[in-house]
């Protein structure tokens, strides 16, 4: 599952040399020949923050010196302007045009039934409130900074090869369903897994026409038609069911928009109670009461899919949807370890520059993990492997422009990543990898299985 090291070394070198120089010109960060170059600025800061997300200004200056430029601390602080932020944004955009993936997909049989399994999700990064005009936040009734100014990062992640298939940046108030990745093309025979915020019947209908499979959570007020053409709201349809599991073909949406399988698993009473309490609290936070349909749906874990039964059973669909958590874990890695949403500064354009530079660092980290066999879906702990990358990143940055030495450094890094530990096997609540390898032993038949049937607690 390794990528050839040269397949990563070459784009890495190009990105931090010629493309960095061009981005510095295009952003007008560098307007004339001077000792500070775009190449040094990118190498010095991206690798410094990847090594230590809480690096002080003095430590950033030392990293710049390693990249060949000597600046005073105040001189560096003065460089964090709007053009500096635009420089890092352009360089990040350039990095995202490069496709780096494992040479061979994961060996998990359940995933290999599809021509790629694509996870789609987004996360918010808070920004200083003064940037609200550029990046309006998600709104809300409180005065949290993310409500005033934030950046929405939307990611499409192919779990089989570990490829970052797409990363979009939008103002925080942008709805998930309106982002560019929502309807971006996918290969025929691939599988799309997205959370409830991306639910859109027209988009799903389009994917169905293109022979792209999907598993999704439906909205609680969805209209469905049964096999006899009888129309009802999803909640009412489920309320009439006496079985604890439903697997049937229906038409979803007014006017019978989408022909798909309706999969539903009844939840234990204690799980239903927890979900209903959460639904009522969320409704109250928005100044309204939870609808009967929503409260009824809390008693079920529900999916819609167009994958035929011969290709995927209800049990396997239940297991597969949980794979969506892997993109949440990716965000957790970026936020907890990469600290992409944290800064030692309160200066707006220093913060914005840092967000873009740290995101770029996470892309570089992902490339290096793939090159060393630590990112594609397996039993290995990605977090432990990423820690090994960060421990060696300053050495990689120091030899970046020396191709032969860089390959040696990447081979050493590969040994460290391979030595990183695996996810510990758990008997009570097995890891996602364990359940995918053994989907028939995931415990769906137990009464407590529905409690963890989906990362979405309520619809």
Describe the overall structure.
The chain has 459 residues and is of the alpha+beta class. The protein folds into two domains: 5-98 and 344-378 and 380-419, no CATH class; 111-327, Alpha-Beta Complex (Transposase Inhibitor Protein From Tn5, Chain A, domain 1). It has helices spanning 5-15, 18-26, 38-51, 57-66, 73-78, 82-95, 145-148, 201-209, 234-239, 269-285, 292-297, 314-321, 325-337, 348-371, 382-398, 403-419, 432-437, and strands at residues 117-126, 150-158, 163-171, 191-194, 213-216, 223-225, 231-233, 245-252, 258-266, 300-305. It has a ten-stranded mixed β-sheet with strand order 3-2-1-4-5-10-9-8-6-7. A hairpin with a 4-residue loop joins strand 2 and strand 3. Helix 3 packs across helix 4 (57-66), helix 3 (38-51) crosses helix 14 and helix 15 (382-398) packs antiparallel against helix 16. The longest helix is centred in the C-terminal third of the chain and has 24 residues, at 348-371. The chain starts with a helix and ends in a 22-residue tail after the last helix.
Radius of gyration: 24 Å
Described by the principal axes of the CA atoms, the overall outline is: globular
Sheet with the most strands: spatial strand order:
3-2-1-4-5-10-9-8-6-7
* Total helical segments: 17
Low-confidence stretches: 445-455
Beta content comes to 5-15%
State the distance separating the first and last CA atoms: 37 Å
Percent range for helical residues? 40-55%
């Amino acid at each position: 599952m390794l990528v050839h090291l040269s397949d990563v070394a070459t784009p890495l070198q190009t990105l931090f040399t010629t493309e960095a120089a061009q981005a510095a010109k295009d952003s007008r960060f560098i307007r004339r020949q001077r000792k500070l170059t775009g190449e040094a600025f990118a190498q010095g800061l991206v690798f410094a923050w990847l090594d230590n997300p809480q690096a002080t200004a003095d430590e950033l200056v030392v990293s710049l010196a390693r990249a060949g430029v000597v600046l005073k601390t105040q001189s560096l602080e003065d460089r964090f302007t709007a053009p500096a932020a635009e420089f890092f944004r352009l360089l990040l955009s350039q990095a995202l045009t490069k496709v780096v993936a494992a040479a061979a997909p994961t060996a998990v049989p359940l995933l290999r039934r599809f021509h790629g399994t694509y996870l789609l999700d987004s996360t918010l990064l808070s920004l200083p409130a003064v940037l609200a005009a550029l990046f309006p936040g998600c709104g809300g009734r409180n005065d949290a900074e993310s409500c005033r100014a934030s950046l929405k990062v939307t990611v499409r992640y192919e779990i089989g090869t570990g490829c970052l298939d797409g990363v979009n940046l939008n103002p925080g108030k942008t709805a998930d369903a309106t982002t560019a990745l929502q309807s971006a093309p996918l290969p025929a025979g691939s599988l799309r897994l997205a959370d409830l915020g991306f639910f859109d019947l027209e988009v799903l209908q389009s994917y169905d026409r293109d022979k792209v499979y999907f598993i999704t959570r439906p909205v609680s007020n969805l209209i469905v038609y049964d096999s006899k053409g009888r129309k009802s709201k999803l909640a009412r349809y489920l309320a009439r069911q006496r079985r604890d599991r439903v697997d049937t073909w229906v038409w979803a949406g007014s006017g019978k928009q989408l022909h798909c399988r309706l999969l539903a698993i009844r939840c234990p009473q204690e799980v239903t109670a927890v979900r209903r309490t959460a639904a009522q609290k969320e409704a109250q936070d928005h100044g309204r009461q939870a609808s009967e349909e929503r409260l009824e749906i809390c008693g079920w874990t529900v999916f819609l899919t167009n994958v035929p039964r011969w290709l995927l059973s209800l049990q396997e669909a239940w297991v597969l949807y949980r794979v969506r958590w892997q993109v949440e874990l990716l965000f957790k890695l970026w936020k907890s370890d990469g600290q992409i949403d944290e800064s030692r500064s309160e200066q707006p354009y220093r913060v914005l520059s840092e967000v873009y530079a740290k995101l770029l660092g996470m892309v570089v980290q992902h490339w290096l993990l793939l090159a060393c066999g630590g990112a594609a879906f397996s039993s290995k702990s990605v977090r432990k492997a990423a820690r090994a990358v960060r421990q060696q990143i300053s050495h990689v940055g120091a030899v970046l422009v020396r191709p032969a030495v860089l390959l040696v450094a990447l081979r050493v890094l590969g040994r460290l990543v391979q030595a990183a530990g695996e996810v510990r096997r758990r008997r009570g609540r097995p890891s996602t990898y364990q359940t995918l390898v053994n989907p028939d032993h995931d415990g769906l038949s137990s009464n407590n299985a529905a409690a963890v049937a989906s990362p979405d607690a309520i619809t």
